[in-house]
Design goal:
79% helix; mainly alpha
């Protein structure tokens, strides 16, 4: 890593993302030591968001009895960290300020996904990027959106502002939808919220597998 990395806007964003990551891991570590049973659902929700997508993580949170106050802030934090770490790493690697061979295959797949999905965004600019990140379709998540914003020439702070605002609004919309679905399922049967969660996970996994088969790119939660 070059010494000049943290002198760039992307390097400073990466520093913020790494600091938030460290604080979140520290909080999980303290919580696991003090009250492991209570912290476990938060850890599962985090893992589901990272591996499958926000729909899976948030659905599990509501099925576990959490409310908006627990589900929404955690998922906002998770997706903010993803953007603040992966987006700067991508930009810095394309400028050869960071050269980690272990990252090259992942960054290549991310760029391929952005190139494949970025046509409409290039045509409509900032408005297209906002809609791209907001819409709950496969490979329209904030990380790929931020990469597309970079590729179409948006300044870092404009790019991140559009991507994160759209992400937060999308999380709010998912929260309202999933909470209503969870409440309806709970009225049917006390185990129905978990059945709903499993159904959402299966749909999300199927969409990711279908997308990978068609495009040969990695999945990202929408």
């Amino acid at each position: 890593m070059h010494d000049s990395v943290f002198a760039t806007p992307e390097g400073r964003l990466l520093g913020v993302g790494l600091a938030l990551t460290g604080l979140m891991l520290l909080a999980f570590g303290i919580g696991w030591h003090l009250f492991p049973d209570r912290i476990l659902p938060y850890a599962i929700m985090t893992g589901l968001n990272l591996i499958i997508g926000r729909e899976a993580g948030m659905s599990f949170g509501y099925a576990s009895g959490f409310g908006h106050a627990q589900v929404v802030p955690l998922n906002i934090l998770i997706e903010t960290i993803q953007v603040l770490v992966i987006y700067p790493l991508f930009v810095l690697s394309t400028r050869h300020l960071i050269q980690w061979r272990v990252l090259e295959p992942f960054m290549t797949r991310i760029q391929r996904a952005a190139d494949t999905r970025g046509g409409a965004v290039r045509h409509f600019g900032i408005a297209g990027l906002f809609v791209f990140v907001f819409m709950p379709f496969w490979m329209t998540g904030p990380v790929v959106g931020a990469i597309i914003g970079f590729l179409i020439g948006l300044r870092p702070w404009v790019n991140l502002s559009v991507v994160l605002v759209s992400t937060y609004i999308a999380i709010g919309a998912w929260a309202l939808l999933l909470n209503e679905l969870n409440a309806w399922a709970a009225d049917v049967n006390r185990f129905a919220p978990y059945a709903l969660f499993v159904a959402i996970v299966l749909i999300a996994v199927a969409m990711n597998l279908l997308g990978r088969h068609r495009r040969g790119t990695p999945g990202e939660g929408g």
